[in-house]
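User: tokens in, sequence out, please.
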């Protein structure tokens, strides 16, 4: 065994067992909120996290804005209006259920987080008198100062507050544990699959862990490192933390869970892969930096334009809807606006050059109103994920002063490391578990929340869907029994053998996790890039299946941490196959999915393409885009009659 130089005591021969009513997999924002909700309903809850739970997950290091909070005190937009706008903006290719939950419950969850210790108000009057501040509530708003559906928050305070609440509720917290498989049984009627728990390993000691539960909530991250991987800089290959790579998608696939929109991928943007700067460490005017001014090398300002191409002459116009526009989200648009938006950061250099602008460009906060400058640099840059120390503190130590300095920025066509069409990401409403109005999957007892869901979104979406799934999983647990490990002892033994095999192979003759990840990424670029075609996709799938038979038996690890990294790549391989299978199943190009086939069949009707694995077969079915129902408010009320304030008629 390759454990001679490891600093932790080996427990690879030890097995630990856990039993609970509700088992939450993933300790990020969605997972913590799910565990809190289930525990508050009186359930015995266990939450399992691959990293240290206090700062784990995509939101563990912070978040600077909470969007789509349609019921907050200042909002002028209803949950119904906002959800239908998000659906319309994506031609229906969105998760109506999860985003209605986000819009309907987002403010409730934010208020709940405040009660347990998170900071959501300017209670020290740092920004008193600012245009974005409501003086009565001391809430800070972002982007659209009229509709007030997005709030600025101190997201670095949220995760510690959640963990404190988990402990107060007596939730069992299992850290540094990678879940590797879902346990399942056939129902007593034999026509349905039940999720009965999970299996994992401790990433420091290597201990084998078996979990039993009546309800399981999948709250793990969206997939990553599929098309982009740098062995030299693995930690900055993706926007999200290193441990967030889509383990849950792979595990769900293996037991027959359904997935939606897995064919969607976008050209890489929030990825570094060793070639560009980490997000928000360079100037821009989108999202966290919005609405910073952009100037060229001579100091000439690049003007803002509204959605209709009109020049915005004053700063105030940048934070107000344009004529006949009810509201907007970050950067003057909703995620993928149907209308043309020519903001400074989206203009190709050819256009800027013809207008007389000269490289390089800079984000300029010096001429902005002081409170606007201060809320961007020092509040939003500092609270957004991975910006407090790597960006804010490092720039401060280097002497950057936003009152007198400008920060070089990069945009479409003139950035330092523009990504190629074949370099993709599962970003911007990506694929994930298919869900119903309980946020339950087709596997009974398996619920999904946050980034595990298809068309997932940001912090508020994770918190709202996490809490919602926790409530429904708690209710479901009342009607299900516990299945002890003795019921599937053979499957558990098989999983143990699979997990530990790489530790017993000759290390100097095997394949490392980095080699395998690199091979998968290059394969996906070659065979599943921007333009898809039947024979190309099938060839790529054949290569990935060859990796399973030839490379996995050669893969090696020298300690439990390295074993975790290798098992992650096993899951990356599985998710890559899912992406290709979904791409084969969708026969028609779809612009809103950024899915393009050279052999597109234009006679196919618009619909979701939902895929699942059954034995060695991959099955798919078409689902209407409005499967959630046309009256979202009525549907929500039907499934949430016990929630205070819900109209049931």
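Assistant: Sequence out:
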């Amino acid at each position: 065994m390759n454990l001679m130089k490891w600093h932790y005591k080996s427990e690879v021969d030890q097995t630990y067992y856990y039993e609970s009513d509700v088992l939450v997999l993933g300790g990020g924002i969605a997972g913590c909120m799910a565990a809190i909700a289930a525990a508050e309903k009186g359930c015995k809850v266990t939450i399992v996290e691959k990293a240290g739970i206090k700062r784990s997950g995509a939101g563990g290091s912070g978040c600077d804005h909470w969007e789509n909070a349609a019921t907050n005190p200042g909002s002028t937009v209803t949950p119904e209006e906002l959800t239908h706008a998000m659906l319309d903006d994506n031609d229906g290719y969105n998760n109506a259920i999860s985003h209605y939950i986000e819009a309907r419950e987002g403010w409730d969850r934010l208020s709940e987080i405040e009660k347990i210790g998170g900071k959501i108000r300017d209670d020290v009057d740092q920004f008193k008198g600012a245009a974005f501040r409501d003086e009565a509530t001391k809430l800070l708003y972002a982007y659209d100062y009229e509709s007030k559906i997005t709030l600025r928050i101190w997201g670095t305070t949220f995760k510690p507050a959640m963990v404190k609440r988990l402990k107060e509720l007596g939730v069992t917290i299992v850290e540094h544990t990678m879940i590797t498989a879902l346990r399942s049984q056939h129902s007593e009627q034999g026509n349905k699959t039940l999720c009965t728990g999970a299996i994992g390993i401790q990433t420091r000691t290597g201990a084998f862990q078996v979990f039993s539960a009546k309800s399981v909530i999948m709250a793990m991250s969206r997939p990553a490192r599929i098309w982009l991987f740098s062995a030299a800089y693995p930690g900055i290959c993706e926007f999200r933390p290193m441990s967030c790579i889509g383990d849950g998608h792979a595990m769900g696939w293996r037991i027959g869970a359904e997935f939606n929109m897995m064919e969607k991928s976008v050209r890489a943007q929030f990825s570094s892969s060793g070639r560009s700067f980490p997000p928000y460490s360079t100037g821009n005017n989108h999202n966290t930096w919005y609405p910073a001014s952009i100037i060229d090398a001579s100091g000439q300002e690049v003007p803002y334009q509204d959605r209709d191409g009109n020049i915005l002459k004053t700063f105030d116009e940048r934070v107000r809807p344009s004529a006949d526009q009810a509201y907007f989200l970050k950067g003057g648009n909703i995620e993928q606006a149907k209308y043309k938006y020519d903001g400074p950061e989206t203009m190709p250099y050819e256009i800027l050059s013809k207008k007389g602008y000269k490289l390089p460009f800079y984000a300029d906060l010096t001429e902005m109103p002081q409170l606007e400058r201060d809320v961007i640099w020092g509040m939003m840059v500092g609270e957004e994920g991975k910006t407090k120390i790597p960006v804010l503190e490092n720039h401060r130590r280097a002497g950057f002063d936003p009152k007198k300095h400008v920060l070089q920025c990069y945009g479409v066509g003139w950035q330092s490391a523009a990504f190629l069409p074949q370099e993709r990401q599962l970003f911007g409403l990506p694929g994930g578990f298919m869900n119903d109005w309980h946020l339950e999957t087709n596997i009974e007892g398996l619920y999904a929340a946050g980034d595990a869901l298809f068309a997932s979104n940001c912090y508020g979406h994770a918190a709202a869907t996490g809490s919602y799934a926790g409530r429904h999983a708690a209710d479901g647990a009342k009607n299900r029994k516990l299945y002890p490990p003795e019921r599937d002892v053979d499957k558990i033994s098989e999983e143990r053998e699979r997990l530990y095999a790489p530790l017993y192979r000759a290390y100097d003759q095997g394949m490392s996790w980095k080699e395998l990840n690199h091979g998968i990424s290059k394969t996906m670029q070659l065979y599943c890039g921007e333009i898809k075609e039947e024979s190309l996709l099938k060839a790529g799938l054949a290569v990935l299946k060859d990796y399973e038979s030839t490379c996995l038996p050669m893969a090696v690890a020298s300690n439990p941490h390295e074993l975790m990294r290798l098992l992650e790549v096993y899951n990356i391989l599985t998710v890559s196959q899912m992406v290709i299978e979904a791409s084969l199943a969708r026969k028609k190009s779809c612009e809103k999915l950024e899915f393009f086939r050279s052999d597109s069949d234009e006679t196919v009707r618009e619909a979701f393409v939902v895929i699942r694995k059954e034995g060695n077969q991959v099955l798919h079915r078409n689902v209407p885009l409005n499967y959630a129902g046309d009256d979202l408010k009525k549907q929500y009320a039907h499934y949430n009659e016990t929630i205070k304030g819900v109209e049931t008629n």
